[in-house]
Amino acid sequence: MEKTVLITGGAGFIGSHLVRLMVNKYPNYKIVNLDKLTYAGNLANLTDVEDKPNYEFVKGDIVDADFINQLFKDFNFDSVIHLAAESHVDRSIEGPMEFIVTNIVGTTNLLNAAKDSWGNNFSDKLFYHVSTDEVYGSLGEEGMFLETTPYDPRSPYSASKASSDHIVRAYHHTYGMPIVISNCSNNYGSHQFPEKLIPLFINNIKNNKALPVYGKGENIRDWLWVNDHARAIDVIFHDGKNGDTYNIGGHNEWTNIDLIKVMCKVMDEKLSRPLGESEKLITYVTDRAGHDMRYAIDATKLKEELGWVPSLQFEEGIRNTIDWYLENEEWMNNITSGDYENYYEKQYATR
Ligand code: NAD
Ligand code: DAU
User: Fold this and answer.
1) pTM
2) What total of structural domains would you count in the chain?
C-alpha cells in the first residue's frame, strides 16, 4: 500500500461519503475508518465498501488516549482525516459537555498520538482537520465568510469546533506538524441522520407529521451536496498547502422557509398528493437559543488555488436526495426506531 490513511467518524454522514470516495478512488491506499458508532454512526452507510481489500473498520473512541496511541502504533498511519465529532447544534444546547470532550479532547488526543508516532519526521505526513463555517459566527444581510474572517462561534457546538481548529493550528506552529483545515457550509444528501433539517423534514412530510420551523424560518444556510464536500476534501488532502485553511461552500443560500417550501412541493409530486398538501404541515415553533441568522461561504480560494467547484445544482440535488430517502425506507426505519423517539419527544415536545 502506498499510504495508510486514518479517517475518523467514517460511519457518520459526511465521513461515510468520504470513505466511499477514498476506498474506490485509491485502491493503493489503506483506509482505516475509526468510529465510536454513537447514535450518529451507522455501518449500514458503508455496506458497499465493507468487503474492499483496502478498507478496515475499527470501533473506538477518540476520547480514549491509550486506545488512540495504540492504534497509531498498530497501523503506523501516514495521514489523518479527522471528522469524528458531536455535530448537532440542538444537542449541544441541551448538553454541551459531550461536545467539549469529544470535539476538543478527542481532537487533541489524535494530535498527540500523531505527534508521538511521527516523531520529528513529518515528511509526507498530514493531519487534516474537517471543520465548519459555524466557527465564523453569524452574518447580517451582507458579506460572506472568508478564510480570514475572525472566529466568533456562538453555540457550544461551534465553540468546541473553533477550539479544535485553534489547537490543530497550535500543533502546526509549535511542533511543525503538517496540517490543513477546511471549513464547510451545510451539507445535504443521502445517509444524513434525521435530526438535521432536510432528512427530518423529508421523514416528517412522508409520515404526515408537523414540520417544526424554528422562529420565523428566516434564517439562511448555504447548502452543499455532501459528495461535493467529499470531493473538496480529496482535493485539499492531496494538493492543499501545509498550514492553510480552505473554505468550502455551495454559493447556494436559502432561507429555511423557502427551502422547506421547495421540499414540500417536490414531496407532493413524489407522493402524488395535491399541490400544497405538505405545506399544511408547517408549524412555527420556539426559536433555537442563539440561532445564527445567516451563513454564506466564499469558496474563491479553493476554486482559484485548487480548481474545485461544486458539481451539482441544488434543484437537482434536493430531488435526488428526496428520492434516496423515499427509496431507502428500511435505512430510515432502522434509525427512527428505539432511542430516536425519546430524542424527538425531548427536543420538540416543549417547543
Ligand atoms: P455525524 O454526526 O453524522 O457523524 C459523526 C461521526 O463521528 C459518527 O459516525 C459518530 O459515531 C462519530 N463519533 C462521534 N464521537 C466519536 C468519538 N468520540 N470517537 C469516534 N467517533 C466518534 O457528523 P457529520 O455531519 O458527518 O459531520 C462530520 C464532520 O464534519 C464533523 O466534524 C462536523 O463538525 C463537520 N461538518 C459537518 C457539516 C454538516 O453540514 N453536517 C458541515 C461542515 C462541517
Ligand atoms: O454550517 C455547517 C453546520 O451545518 C454543521 O457544522 C453542523 O454539523 C450541521 O448540523 C449544520 O448546522 P445547522 O444548525 O445549520 O443545521 P440544522 O440542520 O440543525 O438546521 C438547519 C437550519 O434549520 C437552522 O437554521 C435551524 C433550522 N431548523 C432545524 C431543525 C432541526 C428548524 O427550523 N427546525 C428543525 O427542526
Assistant:
1) 0.98
2) 1
Tell me if 333 is assigned to some domain. no
Of 147-156, 166-175, 237-246, 339-348, the one with minimum mean pLDDT is 339-348
pLDDT, tens digit (0-9, with 9 covering 90-100), for 5-55: 999 999 999 999 999 999 999 999 999 999 999 999 999 999 999 999 999
261 CA → ligand 2 middle, Å: 16
Q: What angle do CA 93, 291, 216 make, to 5 degrees?
A: 125
What's the rounded mean pLDDT across residues 217-235?
98
Q: Is residue 9 part of a domain?
A: yes
Q: Which of 78, 133, 195, 253 is catalytic?
A: 133
Domain span at 165:
3-192+223-252+291-312
Query: What is the distance between the alpha carbons of residues 129 and 163, in angstroms, rounded to a whole number?
Result: 12
- Ligand closest to Cα of 226 equals 1
What DSSP designation does 337 have?
Answer: S
102 lines ligand 1 (CB under 6 A): yes
In-domain check, residue 269: no
Q: Which three cell numbers stand for residue 57?
A: 473498520
133 is a catalytic site residue? yes
